[in-house]
Amino acid sequence: MEELRVLIESFEAGAYISLFLLAAVPWIEVGVIPIGILMGLHPISVAVLGFLGNWITVFLVILLFDRWNQWRKRRKPSRAGASEEAPSKRKQRARRLWERFGLPGLALLSPLATGTHLAAAVAMAFRTSKGKVTLWMTVSIFLWTTLLAVGSHYGFEWAIPQGT
Fold this sequence. Notes:
Blueprint: H1 2-23, H2 32-38, H3 43-75, H4 89-113, H5 116-125, H6 130-155
C-alpha cells in the first residue's frame, strides 16, 4: 500500500512539473490550467504554476527583445531619409490593432488572439518600454490565470469524479 501511495505522489509531482513546463510553451500557456484542474490537481497550485511558467518565459522574451533592440541601436547607423520596404500585411494588421487597442488591449486579448509571448514581442517591436510591457503582460497573465482557474474549478465541478 505504501508503494502505491509513493507512486501516486510521484505521478502528481510529475504532473505539476509538466504543467509548469507546458505553461511556458507559446500558444499553450494558460490553457494548461483547465487541464490540470480537470485532472484533479489542486486548483491553487495549478494556477500558481501556470502563471509562473507563462510569466517567466514572457519576461525572458521582453528582456531578450530589449537587449536585441539595444544591440541593433548600437550596431545600425540611423537611416533617416532612407527608403524602407513596404510593411507586410501581418505588420500592417498588427499596427492597426496596436493603434486601436494599445498595449492594454494587446496584453489582455493576447491569450485568445496571438499568445502572450508573441504579444510581448510585438509590443517591444513597437518600441514600448520594457517596464510597461512587463506590467501589462503580468496583469493579463494574472487575470487570465485567475479566470481560467476559477471557471475550471467551479464550472467543471460536475465532471470531476467525487470520492464516496
